[in-house]
Fold each of these.
Amino acid sequence: MFRPKELYIGLRYTRAKRRNGFVSFIALISMLGIALGVAALIVVLSVMNGFGKELRERTLGMTAHATVSGHDGYLSDWQDIQTRVITHPSVLDSAPYTQTEAMLSNRSRVSGAIIRGVLPDQEPGVSEIVDKMVSGSIHDLRPGGFGIILGRELANAMGVYEGEQITVITPQANITPVGVLPRLRRFTVVGVFEAGMHQFDRSMALMHIQDAQKLFSMGDRVNGVRLKLDDMFNARQITHQLDSQIGEDYWVKDWTRMHSNLFKALKTEKVVMFIILLLIVAVAAFNIISTLVMTVNDKQSDIAILRTIGMTPGSLMVIFIIQGMVIGLIGTLMGVAIGIPVALNVNDIVTAVEQVMNTKFLPADVYYITEIKSDLHASDVLTYAVSAFSLSVLATIYPAWRAAKVQPADALRYE
């Protein structure tokens, strides 16, 4: 506990004009260093939050929150599964799907692709494909029409446009009198989508689920049922409940498992960046040590007088800890005051800088995410501020200990 006299003296030392102006300059640098570090933490990690959120939304725009499939990768009773899972209060919608790898061919151009079979009437309930269409419509996929929708990059790579035809070559083969021949089928491109994710735009194609079943000899089976949940961040708990509800013959996966490596990498990157940026605050904290050490040397006679009138070494330590804490607190508050407005308006700031410099930091022909978005969390701001302030408090311990060790007789010998 800080007693009134220690608090009064500590605050007086902080605001008093010192004989040594260099000490005041180092204290100012310490405050600015902490402010810069805290502001950098808030802005950079908020931008990383925004990037992760944008990536998550784009990924989940083409994939489901959860899927139900059989242990062998197929479902024969998928209609029954839909009926059972939709009774769960957290399941908003469901849709069956098939997913198989195949080859696409157009004249001399060949490319691998992931062929997803969908029901056009149900697919919009579990994905954002309707909003991702560049041309055509998902409802142009009709059973027996053998239409196909390609990702934008895949369509460009194959050199096809809406209305043109492309050949789909499957891994299965037909046995004919002249030998084993690959199974292939001509499809008409009825649309193009752009998800904003390279893995989808370059390698994914959609067709009607009945055409996919016929092409890949799947009969009435599908690969699984995709689910949309009311809370995607609670997907793991909901999938555990669904797993118990539908029985052990089925396998329920949520999006955190299907894309675990990607989001674990983002989380690890954020932690590493937090540690790196916290080093800026640590450097400023070392300046606090320098400031207080010089203050102790400057106040040798004052310390000696305080000791002679009965102040204990512990009280002396508290005085200089308070002085360092004030520097750290002001620096932290300045950093928060700077960082929050910058983080909330980072995209406008970057746009203004781009206009002044006549350049584009994230050109659309190179990057999918062309805007720097921020996602500021109050809990993160509190964590960064507490971390910076804690480093400042730790930096005061050694100088305060030195002040407590000052001997009055030695300090007053040459006064």
Note: The longest strand covers residues 91-106.
Amino acid sequence: MTEVTITAKDVKALRDRTGAGMMDCKKALTESNGDVEKAIEILRVKQGKRIEDRGERVPTEGTVQTYIHSNGKVGVLVEVDTETDFVARNEELIAFARDIALHIAAAAPEYVSQDEVDEDRKQAELRVYEQEAADKPENVRAKIAEGKLRKWYETVVLLDQPHVNGDKYDGKTISQLLDEVRSKTGENVIIWRFARFAVGS
């Protein structure tokens, strides 16, 4: 059987349908050789009730929220999309979107998710980390480089970052907080895009 190439777009589409994590979606698609229905089945078997096939329930409603830092030098616009206008107008969702905007202002991520990271840039980072691990035993070099790449993702990828308000969110990542919002609303909520403005940059 020919091995199917799993693209970042495939992974994102499965994530949008199930709410499962990016890596879990990628593993399920690899295991099912690209068969989406089988991948959903694999996720449901492994993760049980936490996985729900949202089918074609595409987020077409949403909210745009802002955050302007008190010094007026940093500002953020963020779009959080939902399936229904009812949820989009929900105070809890609006508060979540505002908290994400505040986080973006402080943490300055460059991408929403890992699949948006340019492959050339990712490989360049990986080469640097492999070089840094060159003096380590050969059997652990790849693992060290992968670990450093994960830490780098935390600096540039929004979903991988722990929320800057650690006291309020107990060190949870934006991805974990998003999953909680999805569970509460029962809808396919996504952070669609953001723009961060800083004076002089």
Note: The longest helix spans residues 138-156.
Amino acid sequence: MPLRLKKPLIYKSNVRNNEQSYSLMTKFSDSYLGRRDFLRVGSLGLGGLSLPDFLRAEEALKSVGGIAKDKTVVFLFMHGGPSQFETFDPKMDAPSNIHSATGEIKTKIPGITFGPTFEKLAKLNDKFSIVRSFTTQSAAHDSKPIVSKEYSSGAQIGAHYAKVAGASHPQFGMPRNVWLHPQAVDAGATDPIMKLGKFDVTGPLGPAYEPFQPSGKSDLRRDMQLTIDPDRLGDRRTLLTSLNQFRRTVESGKVTGGLDKFQSQALETLTGGISDAFDITSEEASVIDRYDTSKLIDVSRISKRWNNHQRYANHIKNLGKLMLLARRLAERGAGFITVSTDFVWDMHADNNNATMTEGMEYVGRPFDHAVSAFIEDVEARGLQEKILLVCCGEMGRSPKINGKGGRDHWGGSAPLLLYGGGLNMGQVVGSSTKDGGEPATDRVTIPNLYATIMETILDVGVVRATPGIPEAVSQVIHGASPIRQLI
């Protein structure tokens, strides 16, 4: 029997948990959900429903605004630790062994300069904001801030998002949490480096929230929660074949009576738009060309003296394609997309890694091209409110250039770029000390970045009112204040 209450409470963010839960319950009940349906909807935010269940609950969720906002984070992880000096904080007034080894260029915002490798971004910096007072507080190679033992319980933050938003988008069927690395667009690319930081770990949250890897490293069956014999599913191609066969059976009328409209919609979602989203060749040629970073540098000319030369090649050939793919997935319902191109920002000038000047050509120039293309494309499509781009690495670089022309590990200060998401753009947040080694004003840490991201893509008031949210997830969402200048 449907549970109906005549006088639903009005939701207020500062009421006690039991009152908040009651308010949400009355709103759900007014959508004529039965008691059992309501209990299942109550677990929606914890990823406990299949795709048809999500679809059944969609209208009820809309009536309270939903847990997940219609927004996406694209987190471009600059693995290896980018230098703050050669990117967004040149410090040209500092001594020659400290300031940017590549010099500086003026940007669209008067008085703000970037490293000259970022010539395209310099013309767009009224569209994004940079943080000059960001610190990761550790000089260790790992995958923070994507994964932090201290701040995210050793789970990838996209998994925290998926834990409350659900593993798949309720309307489009797209995995909520996705990881794109070069193998997603290049079958010949080397495996991502995992010994210096993993991107697919879920810690206490469980494997159901692992990021989907379109390179075939993850299990689409689990992400989509389909009721198909698992013994018949070996890979994504087999999955799609099975789905297509099932759809033909449905269309023949043999099982139509056994499917309700939500199951049918789920089937169409999975056999229709999902596979197309991962096909970047369906884009217009001009769009593909604008993103293409493979033509910037002849990879055969990368010096073989650097053991990392193949990683540089992966970055140059694939970063633009990965950013184009990220935009396509964001349009189609992915909520948290991690992009990484291997361990390329580690510019010690040792046997593995190039000097600052040479390395910024291999790494910084493709970054400038791909990120500027992404921003221009998102702007042209009117998606700047929907998509939040975050760019940073696990640390920054030492104030002093070493004797070989590189910079060493440094946890005191690191570059951070944010674009879109409805945040306040076109500004510089905070400042660093004279030597660029520490925040001088408006210190921003990893928990502040987490809070900014989660407030952008989740209704944190609804999350706070939802019973059963794990403490680890709450810590990521509510553990610090968002970056106040951006909100």
Note: Confidence is low (pLDDT under 50) at residues 1-48, 58-65, 218-240, 255-259.
Amino acid sequence: MQSKIQWHQFETVDQITQTVCERILELAKEAIAAHGKFKFVLAGGKTPEKLYRLLAKQDADWSKWFIYHGDERCLPVNHLNRNSVMVANAFLSSVTIPKNQIFDIPTELGVEESAATYRSIVEAAMPFDLVLLGMGDDGHTASLFPSHIHDENALVHSIYNSPKPPAERVTLSAKALSNTQNLFFLIEGKNKREALKKWRAGEDLPVLKVNALKNVVVFFDTAAETD
């Protein structure tokens, strides 16, 4: 079960992105003051993309940021549907985070090789300072889908049968995603209502399996609120 979750409802997605942007910058300052770096795991999706575009306009000590990904699709390296490409276009190309501190999942190498490569990167990086996640309308997060069975002790999973294309993906495990000081979920839209309702009722969904060492915070808009 998750730690006590902080649920924060907003009228609009813009309010969510503004609030989360400010929280991220605060956490980054705290982490850098505490141990000299800010280790941040990014999510894919439309709501995070809006957040990244806002982050790109901010001032921060970018030289101390270290960037990781929660999951990635097995597509060619420059494919527009890759999370890494979206993040680069929306955020990373506009800030001065050193290239050797940006750790993309090399899924162009294939599922097994890229998973093995990223496993060692994740193991060396943990614990993270912040993991950012979304939630699908089926309750999935990253590429952890309902009814999929994984080794609970693994840090990275190879995915061959994603119900959403492409079928092949690489994802951090619930164990790895939970090895973070802070966990933020960004949720918007009425299509998320049913999954959000089930989550709040404690039903067995992938989002429920991810935890944090300190804080689990869910930011959601009015449209996603249950009736």
Note: Strands lie at 5-10, 38-42, 65-69, 71-73, 128-133, 156-159, 169-172, 180-187, 215-221.
